[in-house]
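Researcher: I'd like a structural prediction for the single chain below. Treat it as a standalone chain; there are no partners to consider.
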Amino acid sequence: GDDRAFAAVAAPSARELMTALGRELWVAGDEMLTVSARIQSGGNLGNTGISLRNAADYLLDDDWENVQGELEQAAISSTDLLPEAYFQGLVDLFGYVEPVPACEWDNARSSLQMLSKTLKERELMLMM
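Model: Treating it as a single chain, here is the predicted structure.
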């Protein structure tokens, strides 16, 4: 028989997931700031980037209430490029007494996918 032992792969902890999300939001916000500086009328996208970076900072500091507020601000900052509804899954992660309930993870994932897809599709248009 095959006696090889396989190492168990532990699922990441909630803290590790939140740290990863915070870092990704910070990078995304920073990229939005970079693009906003290169395009005409980039102020709204820049505001979204600032709000995402602020949300990331609060997330890394476990300040859930302010994370939600910054994500809500990001959602309304550049509705001409990123529909407000695309942020809802992220906002909802922090809208509970106990933050980041598992029941909202799929919606948050969908939000991130929609935002990413939309930004990729509009990247060429923005840089013209």
